Amino acid sequence: MLISVSCDKRGAAPEQNLSSDSIARAQLQGSWEDEYMGNVVFTFLGDTIFYNDSLTAPAPFSVKGDTLVVGNEGDISYFIQKLTNSSLVMTSSSGEELSFVKSEETVLPIRNDVSKVAVNQGRKIKRDTVMIASGKRYHVYSQVNPTTYKVYLQGTNLDGLEVETIYYDNFVYIGVYGEKGKIFGQDIKKQDFSALVPESFLSQAILSDILFGRATSEGVSFTAVLAIPDSETSYRVNILISPEGKKSLTLK
Known about the structure:
This protein has 252 residues and is mainly β. Helices cover 5% and strands 53% of the residues. It contains 2 helices and 17 strands.
């Protein structure tokens, strides 16, 4: 990696206590434009990279030798071929060469718009209904509760850069009440489905919702929706609460 450093008027070398990594972080500060398209792609402020689109959340970054590491999990990296105060050339993990020039002005980051996320995010949803089966009357209740537990999803933004988007998981309380009082009440989390859903999927998924099913002689059923954000991939798990309050899970 070529790193450009400045000397004083007498041509003295930079202070020796500055590592090449800290020099590189300093040179990255500011906004960078696509060398060929002329549009700002990202902005480095402090230890955070902000992407110039509304769907990608800011992420921490670091420079380790010849590598730019992006994201909380450290799974996204770029090989830095050249870095000066005005030019940046790097290679993605897929081998694509990316060239940027420093913008004359620092562009303020666009705020991440979570409203475009396909799964339920940041909304508390309350539902209740009455079901009757086999002469038994059930009052059924559910509540989706947002959490601060982060789920990191790897992807590619509109500029072709590998990015890490942050989503937030939910837990859902479900309750079933009979004529004599509560039959069942529990907070359901996505980890409760680990026996049925592969861990590779579960680690990227959100417990988006738990929907009412129907009441039968076997009890009251619900459908849990586990989805990977902004994709068509999901698992739906049937939750059955028996008249005695026993919970069982099956894939739909």
